[in-house]
Amino acid sequence: MDSFSNYLHKNRNELENKFYSQLDHDKKKIFLIGSSHVGRLNQTDIQEYLHNNNVDYKVYNLAFGAEIPWDRLSYVDSIINAKPDLVVYGVGYRDFMDTALQFDSTIPQINLPNPSQDFKYGINSLGNFLHYDFDKFRSPQLVFRYLIRDHFDLNIEQDTSIYEKTKPFYPYDQREIIILNDTQLQKLAESWNFKVNSMPSYDKNQNAYALSQIVEKLKNNNIKVIIFSTPHSKYYTDKLPLKFIKEFDGILQRFSQDGVHVYLLRDKYIDLPIWSDTHHIAVNPKALIYSTDIAKIILNETNP
Asked: Fewer Cβ neighbours under 10 Å: the N or C end of the chain?
């Protein structure tokens, strides 16, 4: 994990430098920013929707798995130098949470060892302590390939075929196509529970501060930015303490009061059969409503 984390940091810088060096800075463009929740947006369909409505922009999905605003703040200057016409930033509950400890609530409390449960608990605890999000390990093949290359100093060219030119930082994964039924989602949700975590209020929240800095820097460089709350299924939202939801709403309200257009999508799709897990919409033609709604928001924001 530690070795791959070092690779992730190095690889992100390489990917960022490569992407921006090949970008046409003078072309009209829109950037979609956020974590894996934003990574599930189909930027090609969004661009096509805009084109069909006589609005021509190149749309790039710059989502990065497990990213939080504090991470993105380090790369905001690259965004500014690229001169996008609009930045669409998606945030979810985890973007403003302190580290969350999760456990399987369905396993009876017994004294006998439970290897599966203990392993899951240990991995999550370690992830929280080291500030890891296992969404970064979505592609086992990618992890293995680069660990081998870096440790044995093999001169192997990076295979970027799993990345798209307009989605350069979020690799495609076939598992994202699968739509779970309601029973599967419910069973998945029963395996997780928020136990030890918190969501500080706006004035005490490091990631709210980071997001405000990003917004301010973009606006100071005449780059329009809007924020939307990313979707979550009812099974995820039902696990959240009410105080978290209120703090999240309060954070977004502060941005709205500061003149940022904020769109709320978090509960819009809770009853629709479009989920690949409890907080990710599937990358599936049957789930295009998410991308279409973002396209409609962009169309509204770009019309004179």
From this structure: C
